[in-house]
């Protein structure tokens, strides 16, 4: 397994002698064969600005920096969980990497490989299933049908400019579609992809919505999308804040929709901090709830989410309530090699999942500058297992919990609704 690196023009090379190494958190480590998969279709190789690549001399075992070059990582498609970070050191300690999830990449057997694991079926999230020419026509047709709907106008930008697949589904009229609703948030996430303070040093890759939708606009989008048994409409997107802050319009809109149709599933992606608001949304007919979380340890959770007027205990109570009312609950678990696999992190999260009745763990790669993240969270207190072994421990400890990457529909409920249709 040989080192992959880039020159200043972005040309990528494999080193003829140095072996590739990777990072698990801030620890340099060798890469095991069992941690590698061929570079997935849809993955992108990127150079990491202001870094120096590190390889290992196979004879001496010494680590070698390549001056004058930059490290290379892979951005893997959704559904692929990264197991290791690229091996590098920063040439400029003040520089921050853009908000992406960088995976270790190597050259072996005349091809690129990444340290990763296929965690879910990526068919519905394969960019090849979203041809741009057809999407443009569908966007145009949909906006002609709903010329006054500002949500759909906003989603057209997300679909065409950001190539957001969830937004695109609104126009392809299938699978899981977006319903952004909130321009405000009750958290100040360190790695927020839609809003960053001007002095953060992180450029936001998306623009947050800047208007408050009407109840009628929500109903229009929901009824347009919920027309097949397996359709999903989802509050809580990357282009908005926390959707439950808009419970005052979500709740009546959901009730109006459920008075007209039982078709499809209503989902919310939420930090679940506003427990009373979540209870109201659940009682209005919510089917699925995905709770965004990075840790079940208060100090770690608070350092990343920076919650405003809520605590991790509120999150747990919201998830407990939803589960008790028959909502299919999942966690959107933001994963970072060297942290996700810490002994104390795993123990706390397994207890959280058991307490709250979570049915699905959606593994999502945390998009962040590694040094910034590691500097603000607690240091490891116990053993660090490695991502692959950690996931296997979750499977063993939680045999009834599904481990994937995407929103799943409970199969028995889908069968029931198909029979009704």
From TrEMBL:
Its cofactor is [4Fe-4S] cluster. Keywords: 4Fe-4S, Iron, Iron-sulfur, Metal-binding, S-adenosyl-L-methionine. It comes from Brevibacillus invocatus. Signal peptide: none annotated. This is Radical SAM protein. One of its GO terms (molecular function) is catalytic activity. It comes from the Bacteria. The keyword 4Fe-4S applies. Residues 180-346 form the Radical SAM core domain.
